[in-house]
Write a structure and sequence with these properties.
Strand content of chain B: under 5%
Distance between the termini of chain A: 34 Å
Order of helices and strands of chain B: HHHHHHH
Distance between the termini of chain B: 33 Å
Helix content of chain A: over 70%
Strand content of chain A: under 5%
Number of helices of chain B: 7
Largest sheet of chain B: none
Radius of gyration of chain A: 18 Å
Number of helices of chain A: 6
Oligomer: heterodimer
Largest interface: A-B, 115 and 118 residues
Structural class of chain B: mainly alpha
Structural class of chain A: mainly alpha
Number of strands of chain B: 0
Radius of gyration of chain B: 18 Å
Chain lengths: 143, 164
């Protein structure tokens, strides 16, 4: 099964690369409203994904591997817009999001090694900043 | 140009690339039951090096996530090889072609991406594509934030470095 997820990852990395989602110029072009290619990509992906996931959910079937299909919308939380701004600033600065940074390394864009190191650092930092809270909820659940 | 070239060598037009990503989301959900989400895998990776409780809970404790992440560079490599690469790059022209400035921007931008993704509870895949497709208001708000800051910061960058 692990090998299957490795292959899924490789397939998605290939798609991101062919979609030019790993291309700094395409990302900057979208944010400067000069090249709307990636906006079209995201729009079509949402449309196709929405239709497919709607049908999957409506069928009520289990996934092919026997697991239940777990497609729940993410919950509202405080500070979401501000969190989005932080992410967007990083996306524009590095020219990468969490998936494309890894695909960029494979493409030979060596600066993406720094991007991935940065993402790990930022992720870890969030864990450190919220640790007292998560630790207390865990203890509350265990008790 | 041959069919093979269009599919495996050249970049895809927006409708084909969007369709590919949408179909991938469906394929993953249909075969494994899982919603696509990349940034949580970075939390799983942190869990290898840290005993922090944050990474021991769902979704970070799910073992498929690091494997999926490990596959992404392989896909990028395959794409580059098929297109006659990989061509190694150490800098971006937006940063004056300087590897040092590019590296600093990549690391600091990456840190903001990591922090923002965990704070928002998702990234471009989990929020902007899967979340919005599932009709989540939270994902829409997060994505408006992604885009707003993306516009602002890119405008600033291109003014600061004078690249027209």
């Amino acid at each position: 099964m692990r090998f299957a997820y490795l292959l899924f990852g490789a397939l998605f990395g290939f798609i991101l690369s062919r979609a030019r989602a790993t291309d700094y110029d395409a990302i900057a072009g979208m944010f400067r409203l000069q090249d709307l290619h990636l906006m079209g990509v995201i729009g079509v992906a949402i449309g196709v994904g929405a239709l497919g996931m709607f049908l999957l959910k409506r069928s009520g079937a289990r996934a092919i591997n026997g697991e239940p299909i777990d497609l729940k919308p993410k919950p509202m939380k405080k500070g979401l817009f501000l969190a989005g701004l932080v992410f967007g600033a990083g996306w524009a600065l590095s020219g990468a999001c969490p998936g494309t940074a890894l695909a960029q390394i494979g493409e030979g864009k060596l600066y993406a090694v720094f991007t991935v190191a940065g993402i790990l650092t930022g992720t870890w930092l969030f864990g450190v900043l919220t640790e007292p809270r998560t630790a207390s909820t865990l203890t509350a659940k265990e008790a | 140009m041959s069919f093979f070239d269009h599919v495996f060598v050249q970049p895809w037009p927006w409708w084909a690339a969007g369709g590919g990503i949408g179909l991938f989301v469906i394929l993953l959900a249909w075969t494994t039951g899982k919603p696509l989400g990349i940034s949580s895998g970075y939390g799983s990776t942190c869990g290898f090096f840290s005993r922090m409780s944050a990474w021991k809970q769902k979704p970070f404790c799910e073992t498929w996530r690091p494997w999926f992440l490990a596959g992404l560079p392989l896909g990028g490599l395959a794409a580059a090889l098929l297109a006659g690469g990989p061509h190694l790059a150490t800098s971006l022209h937006a940063f004056g072609g300087s590897p040092v400035l590019t590296g600093i921007a990549a690391f600091s931008g990456g840190a903001l991406v990591g922090l923002g993704a965990r704070w928002a509870g998702g990234c471009t895949s989990g929020h902007s594509i899967v979340g919005i497709a599932l009709g989540s208001k939270a994902s829409l708000i997060a994505t408006v934030g992604f885009m707003a800051a993306g516009f602002g910061v890119t405008q600033l960058l291109f003014r600061a470095f004078g690249v027209a």
